[in-house]
Amino acid sequence: MRKKLLTLLVLLLPCQLLFAQGNLLKDFPEGFGPKEVGKRLAYRFLDRKHMLHAGKWISYPETFNWTGALKYAEQTKDKKLFSLLQDRFEKLNSEEKQLLPIMNHVDLNMFGSLPLAFYQATKDKKYLEQGLPYADTQWTLPARANAEQKEWDSKGYSWQTRLWIDDMYMITIVQAQAFKATGDQKYINRAASEMVMYLDKLQRPNGLFYHAPDVPFYWGRGNGWMAAGMTELLRLLPKDNKDRARILQGYQTMMKSLKDYQRPGGIWNQLIDEPDCWAETSGSAMFTYALISGVKQGWLDKQEYAPVARKAWLALVPYINDKGDVAEVCVGTNKKNDKQYYYDRPRNVGDSHGQSPYLWCTFALLEK
Which residues are the signal sequence here (predicted)? Predict the structure, then answer.
C-alpha cells in the first residue's frame, strides 16, 4: 500500500510543479498584485503635467503612459478612470490643440495609437478619423523627402525608417492599433515586414540588439522597445502570416539571452551585458512585459520562463515610491557611439518612459 502511495506521489509531482509554475504569475504578496499596482500608476497619470516633445507636442512617453492607463481602465472595468482619461483627451482636442503632434517623424506619428485606442473602446468614429492619418502618413512619402527616405520608400518600408531600435515600438504600435481598429491587413503586414528588416539588420547572434548599426552597445530601454514591439506583433499576427515565424524566432532568441543576463536581484542593467553598469527600470519593465506575455501566450516554456518573469516583477515594484512614481528611469537617449555616454545618462523619477511599461506589465499579468 505504501509503495502504491509513493508511486502515486511521484506521478503527481510533475502536475503539482506545473500548477505551481502557473500560479507564479497569479499569486503575489500584498502590495505586488497587478491590480493594486496598476491602479496606483494609472491614477498617478491623471496628476501629471504634459510631457512634451521638443517643447511643442505631446511626447511618445506621455502617449504610451496614457494608453497604458486606458487599457488598465478597460481591463479592470474602472469607469471612473476611463472617464477621467477621456476628459483629459477631449481637453487636448479642444483647449490644447496646439499640443497635438504633427506627422513628420517616427516619434510623433506614434501618437495616432492613442485616438485609435479610444476608438476601439468607444466606437466613436471621430477617434478613428483622428488616428488613422498618423498610421497612413507613416507610409506616405512627403513631397520634400530626402534621398534616404525615398530609398526606404522604394523598398516598401516606412520613409521614417532610421534603423534605431526605438523605432520598432513607435512604428509597430500605431500600425498595430490601426489594424485592430479597421481589420485592414495592410497595417499589420507592413509593420511585420518592417520588423523583419530591423531584425535582420540589428539583432546580434546572442539575441540582443545594437542601438543602431553604428552604435554597438546593448542599451537596455532600446532593447526593451524591440522586445515590446515584437510582443505586440505576435499578439496580432495571424498564424499563417509569412513574417510570423521570423519574428517569433527573433523574440525567442532575445528572451533566452535576457534570461541569461538577468541580474541576481531580478532586473537588467542600463547596458545589458555590462555587469558594473547600473540597474535600469524602464527597459527591465519592457522585458518583463514581453516575458509575461510569452509565458501566457505559449511562445515561451512556462516552467523555464515563468520564474524569470516573476522574479523581475517582484524586483520592479519596490522602485515605485509613495507617490506612484517609478525611480531609476533612464532619460530620453539619442544614439551615440560612446559606451561611457550610456553609463552617464541621468536617471529620473516618475518619467513616463518608466511609468508606461510598468502599466503594460499590470495588464499582461491580469490577462486570463
Answer: 1-20
